[in-house]
Structures are given as C-alpha cells and as structure tokens.
C-alpha cells in the first residue's frame, strides 16, 4: 500500500512537471509586457519593472499579482474588476497617493492586499468596498493621518490589519466598525496622542494589539478598559514612556505582554499584578536596573521573561519566587555581574537561559550554571566570563569538569581590623569607626546602632561609601555598642565597637559593660536590599534573652556614666573654693564700629566702656 502511494505521488509530480514545462513553452495565457508569469501557478510578477500604470491584459484567472516596487501613482475606480479569481495583490513600494472610490471592487476572492510603503495620506470612504474575503490588509509605512468612520466597513473577513508607521493622529469612533473578525491590529509607531478606546471597543474579536502613543510619559489608568478579549499586547517604540499608572492595564486578561523600546526604569510590578494568566513578558530595551525580590509572584503562569539590552545590574535573590512554571530567562546584553540560583523559584523548571553579553564575574555564585550547563539551553550563545582577568573571554562550555571547582570559587567575607575598638569622646566631636573588609565577591557592609536600627548613608550618624561609620557632633545618647556586619555569598563576619560620649566637662568613665556579640541574629533579614524600608520593617529577629540582657546592661552603663559625671561635677565645684560672682566685660560701642570718622573719639572712650555683670 505504502509503495503504491509513493509511486502514485511520484507519477503526479512528474506529470505536474511536464505540464509546467509544457505551459512555459506554449504560454497557455498571455503575460503582460515586461512582466514575468509563472503560468502553472497563475502568478503574474510585474515587480520592479518601472511601471507607471497597472498593465493591460492581465490573465483573468490569475491568482497572484505582484506590482510592487514600481511607479504607480493612482488607482482608478474598478481598476481590477476583471480579476475575480485574484487571491493576492501586492502594490507595496509604489508612489500611490490616490486610490479612487471602489478601486478594488470585484476582487471578491482577494485574501491579501499589500499597500505598504506608498504615499497615502487619507483613505476615502468606499476604497475597500467589495473586498469580501480579504484576510490581511497591509497599509503600513504610508502617511495616513486619520481613520474616518466606516473606513473598513465591508471587510467582515479581515483578520489582520497592519497600519503601523503611519502618521495617524486621530482614529474616529466608528473607524473600525464592521471588522467583526479582526484578530490582529498593528498601530505601532503612529502619532496617536489619546487612547482610541471607543474605536478599539468595536473590535470584539481582537486578540493581538500592537500599539504606541506619543506624548504620554505615564500610561494612564484604564487605557485598555474595553479590551478584555485581547490576549497579546505589544507596546513598543515609545521612547518617552517612563512608567505605567497602577491601573493602566486594568481590564486586560493577557497571556503575552511586550513593553519594549520604551523608557521604563523599573519593572511595572503593580500594574502587572492582576495578569494571572500571563505566560510571556518582554521588557527588552528599557533602562531597567534591577529585578526586585518577591514582586512577580502573582504571575503564576509566567513561563518566559525577556529583558534584553536593558541596564540590569542585579537580579535579586527570590526575584522569580512563586513562578512554578518558569522556563526561560533571556537577559542577554545587560550589566549583570552575576545571577544567583536563589533568584529562581526552582531550578528544575528552567530550560533556557540567555546570559551572554553581560560582564560576568566567574566565581562560586555562577557555579550552578556550570553544573547545569549540559541541561540548560543557552540558545547557541553560552555565557562568557569577564572577570577575573585570567578567565576573561572563556565561555562556560570551555571549562572541564576538573577545572570548575578550582576556578569558580569565592572568599568568605572577613573584617580585617578585628581588634575590639573602644572610643571615648566629648560631646560635639566627630568620630569615625573603621570596618575594613576582605572577600570575593566584595562583601556588603552594614552598621547597626545601639538602638538596633540599620544606619544609612545619610544623617548625623552615617555610613560612608568606604564602609566607615561616622558619628558627627557626638551626643551622650549616641553611646553604646555599634556593630559592623560584612557578608557575601561565601560567609559573614561582624565586630562590635563601643562608643562613650561624655557631656562636657569631661568625666572619667568606668567601663562596666561586658562585650556583646549578636549570636542569635539572623543576618539575612537585615542584609540591605535596594529597598531599606523593606528590610527594616521586617524587624530583626533575635531571642528575648539577648534583648533583655542588652537592654539592662545598656541602661546600667548609661546610668552609671551619668552618675559618675554628676559626682565629678559636684567635687569639682567644691574644690574650686572661692567663686567670683561678678565679671567685667569691656566692649566697643556700636557707633564706633560704624562711624569710622569718630574712631579716635571712640578709642578715647574705651576705658569707660566696661560692663559689670552679676553672675
Ligand atoms: C519577481 O520579479 C522580480 C524582478 O524580476 C524578481 O526579483 C522576483 O524574484 C520575482 N518574484 C517571483 C515570486 O518570481
Ligand atoms: C513581490 O515581489 C517582491 C520583489 O520581488 C517580493 O519581495 C514580494 O514578496 C512579492 N510579493 C508577493 C506577495 O509575493
Ligand atoms: C509623527 O511623529 C514623528 C516622530 O515623533 C514625527 O517625526 C512626525 O513629524 C509626526 N507626524 C505628525 C503628522 O505629527
Ligand atoms: C491611577 O489610579 C490609582 C488608583 O486608583 C491612583 O492612585 C493613581 O493616582 C492614578 N494614576 C493616574 C496617572 O491617574
Ligand atoms: C527617560 O527617562 C529619563 C529619566 O528617567 C529622562 O531623563 C529622559 O529624558 C527620558 N527620555 C525620554 C526620551 O523621554
Ligand atoms: C483569561 O484568559 C485565560 C487564558 O486565556 C482564560 O482561561 C480565562 O478564562 C480568562 N479569564 C477571563 C475572566 O476572561
Ligand atoms: C533572547 O532575546 C534576543 C534578542 O531579542 C533574541 O534574539 C533571542 O531569540 C531571544 N532568545 C530566546 C531563547 O528567546
Ligand atoms: C573612609 O572615607 C573617609 C572620608 O572619605 C576617610 O576619612 C576615612 O579615612 C576612610 N576610611 C578608610 C578606612 O579608608
Ligand atoms: C554567618 O556565619 C555563621 C557562621 O559562619 C553562619 O552560621 C550563619 O548562617 C551565617 N549567616 C548568614 C546570613 O550567612
């Protein structure tokens, strides 16, 4: 049976070939001058032959007519009325500026009409009448300014309309009426300044929309309120669009969202939150610098995340937390120095990883990629090391299994000046505490105050960029233990430093406080993220016993220092014995300072310008 079928198939092929060859020789139907005709396929190819008008004598049964790349300027009424069988008509790359009323009337079977790259400014009513079967209309790259009511009236079969790269500034309310089956609409790179919500609401079958507005820096609330059936939305090439209002995507139920070539500086977490069916998210070519932890978890179905050509410097741990179907991450051409396994909900689902084009530091943080390199699909472009220098330029597929554990290493964070520091100072002075660290990758440093708050880079007590803590205009209440924590992927380290600030006059100070180290601290909870309010509001979990001891000892030491100061002041005042109760103050009279001509006279009066004060 199988062999038979094959033979029959072969026979038919040979037969067709013979018919084809015979057709070519005999010209069963005439071909217009300068055109090429493929008789057996019923194709008339008049592309690129410098025609200035539609040729005469096109075979009435032609299926495809290509008139692209010519010099056509005008289409007359019923220009193609004798081509009732035509399925495809290509008029792109001409100079068409006028298409007359009913120009395409009679093309009842036409499926595809291409008019891109012409000079159309307006589409008069009735131009597209009679195109009952048309599925695809391409009017991109013209100069169309406006869509009037009922422009596409009779095109009930139209599925795809490409109107991108026009100068469209206005879409009238009923412009799209009658497009009952339109599935895909491309309005990319147009000049529309307000959302044509009413016009779009006519398109009840629309599933893919490509769009861009000019003039908005913030995508307004309710921009797509009436487009609940759209599944794929693309907003691209909006270089001014910097953010999305929190309710801008409300009303949509998308499976795919692309927001590319815009000016977004962060992932629009909140506007995305309700898109629980989203599977594909593309934020490529936006100046986004980081992906924050735990903020994409609502997108339960998300499978693909693309952020190509951005400014990504960090993908935080737990960035893709909760995404159990996550299978593709495309972050090529960014500024990432690493990507930690902790970013993902689970490594098991990840299949495709594009990490190329990033200045990667090859150390223990990327070990997971190395270990999975045979299972992961790098899409043909494996990651490349940029640092350390001796590994520069090596791709991840180069390393032998033996090399990996030796080369992809980290050095635990370590504080160098380990000696316990004790600093005493007078009120009003400025002191600095050093916390020099070593480690690979460079450890992050945090300082915790005696009141157990994270110290920031601003304020009177602040952390300098080199990790040094600076206490300016020290006050008595600044006294206590300060802690420096250093940590990196490989480990952590901490030291404590005690500060004693005494109110002047200086008092001797007796140190009663034993040293404390924060053994019960959960460092992970206070490691600074880009959002310090999040980490501080989480609180610092440590056990009650430590808290009680610290509080008690802290107040004991404080009270004792105050007491010692008072005692000192008392003895000092007693020992001074006789105390003067008056003071003489001499002063220059105000008039003397201003009136220079009277300077001499004022000088003479100096002796008398004295004041006696009672203390
Ligand atoms: C149509 O003609 C042009 C110019 O002669 C040629 O480049 C092109 O390949 C032809 N197209 C087809 C489909 O034959
Ligand atoms: C018409 O011809 C041009 C140039 O030869 C070609 O690029 C285009 O694809 C053709 N159009 C169709 C519909 O085949
Ligand atoms: C449309 O926008 C482009 C780019 O912003 C601009 O160059 C062009 O002049 C605009 N056209 C109209 C008609 O406003
Ligand atoms: C969008 O709506 C939210 C909540 O209703 C509101 O807080 C916000 O100001 C609105 N934004 C704009 C740009 O209108
Ligand atoms: C993009 O946003 C930045 C600030 O976030 C702004 O300085 C810049 O002008 C914006 N670019 C455009 C084209 O609007
Ligand atoms: C949203 O889209 C999903 C997937 O296309 C579909 O299963 C779901 O029913 C839709 N929900 C609503 C409210 O339209
Ligand atoms: C990643 O993005 C680049 C640039 O957009 C694209 O060329 C490539 O196909 C994408 N890779 C995958 C696996 O999607
Ligand atoms: C850190 O910077 C401050 C101010 O720039 C400087 O005074 C201090 O000496 C530096 N500390 C270290 C350890 O280099
Ligand atoms: C800090 O180091 C200690 C001991 O090396 C370890 O038990 C602890 O888990 C580390 N904490 C963090 C947050 O890495």
From TrEMBL:
The keyword Cell membrane applies. Residues 1-24 form the signal peptide. It is a single-pass type I membrane protein. Coiled coil: none annotated. InterPro entries: Ig-like_dom (IPR007110), Ig-like_dom_sf (IPR036179), Ig-like_fold (IPR013783), Ig_I-set (IPR013098), Ig_sub (IPR003599), Ig_sub2 (IPR003598), Leu-rich_rpt (IPR001611), Leu-rich_rpt_typical-subtyp (IPR003591). GO terms for cellular component: plasma membrane. The chain crosses the membrane at residues 547-572. It is found in: Cell membrane. Keywords: Cell membrane, Disulfide bond, Glycoprotein, Immunoglobulin domain, Leucine-rich repeat, Membrane, Repeat, Signal, Transmembrane, Transmembrane helix. Pfam families: I-set, LRR_1, LRR_8. The keyword Disulfide bond applies. Its main location: membrane. This is Ig-like domain-containing protein. It comes from Electrophorus electricus (Electric eel). The lineage of its organism: Eukaryota, Metazoa, Chordata, Craniata, Vertebrata.
